[in-house]
Amino acid sequence: MTASLEGSWALILGASSGMGLATARELGRAGVNVVGVHFDTAEGQEKAAVAQEEIRSDGVQAHFFNANAASARTREELVPRIADLTGRKGVRILMHSLAFGTLVPFLPAAETPGLTSRQMNMTLDVMAHSLVYWTQDLFGAGLLRKGAKIYAMTSAGDFKVTANYGAVSAAKCALESHVRQLALELAPTGVAVNALRAGVTVTPSLERIPESERLIANATDANPHRRLTRPEDVAEAVVLLSRTESSWITGNVIGVDGGENLTG
Fold it and tell me: What is the domain range of residue 183?
């Protein structure tokens, strides 16, 4: 059964750029109130403030918080705030779009010393484990109810590797494992959990990858649509998948890539 999203609430982790921002905007246009968490410098904060006002112009509430979404203190502070903002009705959509990790080879080479345990742990904590911790805290506070949808952003890094992508690949594999486990445990409550595997998308996180220009060229050639995935493609998928009360689509890795992996 399809359902209106109007008046519901979404929590987007990584809301100030890329797929998180595009999804916040698309949800706002669908009548969804948005809580966004982002971690930015002054320039990024200004852009987030502008985006917040843009979303509010659609007649919905939008509250952006500049805080480290991977921090336990952030969760401790924001989960009660979210409960108050939503009137304790809960979060209909949780999107985990955190893309902050270490991009260095495992082994030392040239001027690169090689990956450290601190870098590995940080990458997995931010890009994978934080999904579990946010879900635990929201569920414990009664803010994830029947019909809620949880989305985690993964990538082809779950099965493709490059010299600098090892820690992020590990995080994506862990993230997908967490999605499956959460889907299993939340199924009795009617909450669906899925990973969205976007195609190569030009975002600030992609541009930090040393091989980004080559990845962009290869993906453009390989994609049957002859273009890259756009953040708006992901946003539309989130809105589409969220317009149902059913939790029967759960525990999956759903490609949002225009068929890129068919030939790439």
Answer: 9-256
